[in-house]
Amino acid sequence: MNEYSEEVLDFTVNVGTVLLESGAEIRRVEDTMQRIAAWYGVRDISPFVLSTGIFLTAKDSDRDVYANVRHIPFRAVHINRIIAVNALSRQIAVGKYSLPEAVKELKRIQEMPDKNFFIQGILAGVGSGGFCYTFGGAWTDCLASVVSGALVSFFLSLSAASGRKASKILVHILGALLAVICSTLLFRAGLGENVGRITSGAIMPLIPGTSFINGVRDLTNGDYIAGTIRLVDALLVTFCIALGVALFYLVF
């Protein structure tokens, strides 16, 4: 296999890695990898993508074999990176990027900073207040959910930014415990009329909505292994949230 083909395939695996670790569904990852390799002239490839890994094999005209296996653990969802990679693949299709230029652009996408954690917290709080209103909460309940949901989001951001590989189970148990403690304290302070509705809104930043939706989408696309893994992960996180809330009431 010539050097150019290996560079194309290495770049293809890197593209799939960015998509998968950013939360893209399996079909999107496999399709993008196949299209990019074909656009650069490497057509005989077989990508096999799971929720936590990428397997890529290829053959050239001389029957030389290329193989690459990449383990990708579950990470936070980054919609902006998925959008940027999709835009890159479309620009490659119209001949805008040579391979070296595409490699540089992908590196820039990988280094894209996360949104400011303060802004994320405010938006998560607003979302929590909106869910509280949907659940029938009064405006004071919604205000308490805004505060509690923002604090939970700050906790998640600080956990992710700490640099330590914290257990997802522990993080979500503690996050749910923080949500119910904040909700109860605000309720006791006179802000809100129903602590249950406040708590229901406050735990929303913890809910694994994207993982659940992608799991269902993978199942409908026939990717049963990946879909099952994502659904199990979403259900485990949901159980941890329920456990965190239950611990508060059992202890206090």
TrEMBL record:
GO-annotated cellular components: plasma membrane
The keyword Transmembrane appears for this protein: yes
Annotated localization: Cell membrane
Main localization, broad class: membrane
Signal peptide feature range: none
GO MF annotation terms: transmembrane transporter activity
Membrane spanning stretches: 117-136, 142-162, 169-189, 228-251
Keyword Chaperone annotated: no
UniProt cross-references to InterPro entries, sorted A to Z: ThrE-like_N, ThrE_Dicarb/AminoAcid_Exp
Alphabetical GO biological process terms: succinate transport
Keywords on record: Cell membrane, Membrane, Transmembrane, Transmembrane helix
Membrane-topology descriptor: Multi-pass membrane protein
Pfam family, one: ThrE
Top-level taxon of origin: Bacteria
Span of domain Threonine/serine exporter-like N-terminal: 10-247
Family label: Belongs to the ThrE exporter (TC 2.A.79) family.
Protein name listed in UniProt: Threonine/serine exporter family protein
Organism of provenance: Bilifractor porci
Taxon lineage: Bacteria, Bacillati, Bacillota, Clostridia, Lachnospirales
